[in-house]
Amino acid sequence: MIRIVLDTNLFVSALLKPGSNSDLILHAVKDEKVLLLLSDKICDEISRVLTYPKIRNRLKASDVEIEHFLQLFRIVAVITPGVLDLPPLEADPDDTKYLVCAVEGRADFIVSGDHHLTDLLSYRGIRIVNPADFIQILSMINEPR
């Protein structure tokens, strides 16, 4: 099974834009077509970002629904320890947590819309792609032969 790490913005985008590429990717996670890798640092960031007033005001979900959304992904994901000591990503040191999670979880892909990550193209053999490219990759893998 394909192992993926998702940038926090994909979770936010999926909630704000049903039917978006981010939403489709999260449905692939829920449908067990891909294996999601998370760390406590990533989960904490997702929770924090979802409470930002500008995000919270746009969400059409209650606090309970948001908590359920987060718990669902914690249940289906593999939670990595988040302890690997990697050099900080120069462009945005805070994004290093995604690289740590990907390396610890032996990810095949990091999916992100953040150019600090996508500009890398790959890291230690892990491809870094945007959501649209990942959807294309998924569709090619899932095509009947």
Characteristic terms for this protein:
single chain, 145 residues, 6 strands, six-stranded mixed sheet, Rossmann fold, 8 helices, alpha/beta, globular
Word description of this protein:
Helix content is 50%, strand content 16%. By secondary structure, it is α/β, with parallel strands linked by helices. It has a single domain (2-141), classed as Rossmann fold. It has a six-stranded mixed beta sheet with strand order 3-2-1-4-6-5, with helices on both faces. 28% of the residues are buried. The mean pLDDT is 94.
Would you spell out the secondary-structure blueprint of this structure?
Layout: E1 2-6, H1 8-16, H2 21-30, E2 34-39, H3 40-50, H4 53-56, H5 63-76, E3 78-80, H6 96-104, E4 109-111, H7 115-118, E5 122-123, E6 126-129, H8 131-141
Parallel strand pairs: 1-2, 1-4, 2-3, 4-6
Antiparallel strand pairs: 5-6
Residue share in β-strands: 15-25%
**Structural class, judged by helices and strands?**
alpha/beta
State the share of residues found in helices, binned by percent: 40-55%
Largest sheet: 6 strands, mixed
How far apart the termini lie comes to 17 Å
Predict the CATH topology.
Answer: Rossmann fold
Low-confidence stretches: none
The helix/strand series, from N terminus to C terminus, equals: EHHEHHHEHEHEEH
The largest sheet has its strands arranged as 3-2-1-4-6-5
CATH class: Alpha Beta
> Taking Cα atoms only, what radius of gyration do you get, to the nearest Å?
15 Å
* Second-tier CATH architecture: 3-Layer(aba) Sandwich
Which shape, going by the Cα principal axes?
globular
